[in-house]
Specification:
Elements (H helix, E strand, L loop, with lengths): L2 H10 L15 H5 L2 H5 L17 H8 L7 H10 L30 H13 L5 H10 L13 H11 L3 E3 L1 H5 L4 E7 L7 H4 L11 E9 L3 H4 L8 E6 L9 E10 L2 E8 L5 E6 H9 L6 E9 L15
Antiparallel strand pairs: 1-8, 2-3, 3-8, 4-5, 4-8, 5-6, 6-7
Length: about 325
């Protein structure tokens, strides 16, 4: 399917009265959630339409081509702001066919990861046709297939996008001496768990090994909050459970506004949409999770690759 067709479909779903698809991709809920939380789906209808509603193809193209020389952080804030009020739907993007036939791009529904991915692609693009290509490079290790998607944050999404030049780890630079080093280890036993197997990855595509990360402990984050630049990607980390294939379960953009720090994120649960939430409120709520404790956050700066994305593609470990 061509990008023009994909874009036309995405804009069509933003027409007044269009409804959002609620399908969930294989394993998406089990990978990061459990119990009643896994059963939650987007049920709230936004009080207002998002910033993409009513745009036709020419207006969309003009918007993408606007202020392309602005700092990337400004572009990210501008594009991500248009997603505010977009309904939360778990794993709304796929490959358009095969294991996950969900559309490859959409503006009417996001989860926390696809919200960040699409905002990055839109912010990085200088012309409308670049959006689809950039999104592929961010979402996939090499080829746009389910097996080659960056499913796991520690083992795939973060290291691949750092290698490609899309991200830089700024956790230690911003957290200073409060920053600690943590790891996530994936073993053959990890992939025998029910939640890991639900991803339906063939054995040869199941990454194993130990992956290092920098983390600011949860109780230390607010001491550094005002120093985090707007547009920084904040990643939420939980305690390491050996049978879970990830310990990262959420992410969003930091927004500094009127002497307060917010997290712009696609929120599951109470909001069920993209919101700007006071960061301290968000962290306080996260500190109360008892079953799978939140331990801290990592911080990443989005960047423009020095070379063309095609030359920087790296297969997942």
């Amino acid at each position: 399917m061509t990008w023009a067709v994909v874009l036309a479909s995405a804009l069509l779903t933003q027409a007044p009265g269009a409804s959002s698809k609620q399908d969930v991709a294989p394993g998406a809920a089990r990978l990061v959630e459990s119990g009643s939380a896994a059963a939650q789906a987007a049920t709230a209808t936004p009080a207002r339409p998002n910033g993409w509603t009513g745009l036709d193809a020419s207006a969309f193209a003009a918007l993408v081509a606007q202020a392309t020389e602005a700092p990337l952080s400004e572009r990210l804030l501008s594009m991500s702001a248009r997603f505010i009020n977009t309904p939360y739907v778990l794993s709304p993007l796929g490959e358009g066919s095969g294991v996950d036939p969900d559309p490859t791009f959409r503006l009417d529904a996001v989860d926390c990861l696809t919200f960040v991915e699409q905002s990055m692609a839109l912010g990085l693009a200088r012309t409308e046709p670049e959006v689809g290509s950039l999104l592929e490079h961010i979402r996939y290790a090499q080829t746009p297939s389910y097996e080659d998607r960056n499913h796991l944050m520690e083992a795939q999404w973060l290291p691949n996008n750092i290698r490609k030049g899309f991200l830089r780890d700024v956790t230690r630079a911003l957290g200073g001496e409060d920053t600690v080093s943590v790891t996530k280890t994936l073993t053959k036993t990890t992939w025998q768990s029910r939640s890991s197997q639900s991803l339906q990855l063939p054995r040869e595509r199941q990454p194993t090994g130990t992956f290092a990360l920098n983390m600011i402990p949860l109780e230390k984050v607010m001491a550094h909050a005002r120093d985090i630049p707007s547009g920084t990607i904040l990643v939420v980390m939980r305690e390491d459970l050996p049978l879970k294939a990830t310990r990262i379960t959420h992410l969003g953009f930091v927004v500094q506004r009127k002497h307060r720090t917010f997290l712009r994120h696609a929120s599951r649960g109470g909001y069920n949409r993209v919101v700007d939430e006071d960061l301290e409120t968000f962290l306080t709520r996260n500190s109360r999770y008892a079953k799978w404790k939140v331990t801290g956050v990592s911080l990443f700066e989005a960047r423009r690759p020095d070379s063309a994305p095609a030359s920087a593609v790296v297969r997942s470990p």
